[in-house]
Amino acid sequence: MSSKKLINSSVRCLEDNLEGLVAINPGLRLIKDQHVVVRADIGDMKNEGKVGVLCGGGSGHEPGHAGYVGRGMLSCAVAGNIFASPPPAAILTGLRTIAKDNPGGCLVIIPSYTGDRLNFGLGVERGLSEGLKITTVTVGEDCAVQSKDRSAGRRGLCGMFLVIKIAGALSEEGKSLEEVTQQAQLAARSMGTIGLALKPCSTPGSTGPLFTVPEDEMELGLGLHGEAGVKRVKLMSAKDTVKLMIDHMTNPDNSTHLKVNKGDRVACMINNLGGMSVLEMNIIAKETVQYLEVDLGLNLDRAYCGTYVTSLEMAGVSITLLHLSDTFARCLDAPTTAPGWQTPLLSPGHTDRHTPEPMIPAEVTRSTVQHTQGVTVSKGHGELVYDVLQTVCKRLLEHEDTLNVLDSLSGDGDTGSTVARGAREILGKLGSRDDPQMHVTCPSQLALELAQIVETVMGGSSGGIYSLFFTGAAAGLQKEVSPKAWLDAMTMGIAPIQRYGGAEQGDRTMLDALIRARDSYKAHVDTMSPVEAFAQAVKAGEAGMESTKTMKAHAGRASYVNADLLTRPDPGAMVVAIWLKAVLEAMQSS
After folding, report:
1. Considering the domain 13-202+213-333 in this protein, what is its CATH number?
2. Share of the chain above pLDDT 70, in %
3. Where are the domains of the chain?
4. How many CB atoms lie within 10 A of CB 30?
5. Which of 45, 189, 193, 465 is the most exposed place for a label (fewest CB within 10 A)?
6. Would the pLDDT of 465 be above 50?
């Protein structure tokens, strides 16, 4: 794993990070020569006598902690070096900034790591000795530890930011320091978090990752700094991973478990540890919501999914559960200006969340083929069309891997898989030869059916291109079905591809095979039998495909690739050559 990072200097990472945050968010201020971020309106807060809320920790956990400074959350955040607790002097500076001359006082929320407890403790003691009004709450909601032996204790993980949200909202309501502290302590005792990593992270300036996880394994129960988890498990599906995590968190045999019972009202935070894609996070969110509501029978009143606290670029996720009271729910819903807080979109007029049922019947959203008038052919001709379709689909499936490998040289390596999806869907809808379920005896209608299938199932540019082709071809087959009509269908199918795709012959695309085949068929259709004319078209299409080896790409993804790397045929052109040859195969065997 590479440790390269787009930074200026590993020495100035902390300063550059905070200066960038403040540059983007003018409502924040950075205290000069200190790694302390405060609200720009801190004077107004103190004049109103509202409780200040302070937290902090090592950098590398962005958006935590400085990203949660704002009205309704933190008044001040103190940052340490990468994965290191901030020094007591900086913590004391933050305390003086928000608690001095503030009758409301200040609550300090301390992550339960040894360094944080020591350094924040020193800062708080010095603040108290100066007469500042300060209380503390230590958050350690980690549910990974199984041993009952004395240890460093439970770590403070993503649940800390739910505590911060609750405390900040109560402060904005004007609640006393005692009440804010009491509710923050209650929240800290009412939650649990479990983490899991697929891949480690590396710190700026390092030569490699902090730890290693084999490609086929996952680390369950790790901390925010790359500390080892409770066990390694084999890589599994998102559904099974979510079950593993929540079962461990709620297992009564685990000394640090969170007790939950059917019907309990809870909030859930699904957190990206830095390196997970949004696609993965949405899948994990879906499985988490379903497992909590359906399998465990919990009342999931609040749910959050996003990047709340990270471990640099670690590929991993944490799940936090909080037993929800009316006070906690109200505070979680309260507005905040903190840039790091992400709020889910709820249904209009609702504050409590409910997993929705489908709101629109599937029949309304399903695309249907408009039935058009078109000539029909004999049953025997329809059987030939059936054979052609079946043969084409089979040959495309046989070449799936070959096409993927070819596409990986100039694209994203999925051409074979894309056309295979369409082929499988067509085979599934085709029915039997004696009882076909598609309109094989009405070619124009069949072309529209094929257009719908490929645009829906294949998707992407390939699905769009072939949908245009079949839609255009349908118009050429409405009035007659003859060799000339099939020629017209090819021409009318090619036209919209050129019109909307912007490619021409010679641009190193599928058109280099398709147009050559069409032109050859046009040249021979009046002088040869249909099979002989089409055999010549297949040869021309294959020659067109081979010609793309030496072409410079002017369209498609290949146009972004170094021309020196393009020494094989264009995969789209090869797809055309494959189905042209398959059509001929079916015609010759009929």
Report:
1. 3.40.50.10440
2. 91
3. 13-202+213-333, 364-589
4. 18
5. 189
6. yes
